[in-house]
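Collaboration report, partner site 2.

Our partner group contributed sequences for two proteins of shared interest, and the home lab folded both. The records are reproduced in the order in which they were received, starting with the first partner submission.
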Amino acid sequence: MPPVAAGYLLNYFFEIGPLVGGETITQGEIRHWQGNVGVTLRPWECRVLRNLSREYLAESRRAQQFNAKAPWKPEAHKPLVSDTQNAIRALANR
């Protein structure tokens, strides 16, 4: 997965449950979760959780299609050997 700025919201999102009964989470479910765990979310955080749930549901439906593509592009990784060689060359040229 790509890096996320507000990673704590992802933890909350999966703790609440991305979907409930195959549908998006509701404001009521978020409110009950807050009361149960003693967390108070700001309004924008609640909106983000609802939007994440909508996107999660939409992507889970898209993913069921034949030849569905990943929702992100994996980064190209360089071989570790060439990275090490480049680092050694950089140190040698100091």
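Second partner submission, folded after the first:
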Amino acid sequence: MSLFQTGNFKLHSGDMSTKFIDCDALADEDINALAVWVAERISFCWVIGIPTGGERLAKELKNYTVFSAPTLIVDDVFTTGRSMESAKSGLRGEVIGVVIFARAKCPDWITPIFQLMI
């Protein structure tokens, strides 16, 4: 299994792409390190993982919640943002987002760990 792949792929968004990012290739240690990096920069009281890509990171981030902070939504790869916006629409209060990889420019409320230029 490779993190970065080329070929013809149908993305979760429904879009077609010749490039694919398979975050299942990230080891548990990689996810743990990413959780630490996020927790060092962002405070949050609750974390929600977008199924299924964001669930591993959300599980690790639950160890870093603090009282009286925004809700955090996480996903592995940002393409169109529809999943993140859908999850945000059902929440009240301040909501912030983090994605591991962004294939496109994210809205201001979402921070990519890695911004790809593809």
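Feedback sent to the partner group on the second submission included the following. The CA atoms of residues 2 and 29 lie 16 Å apart. The longest helix spans residues 28-41.
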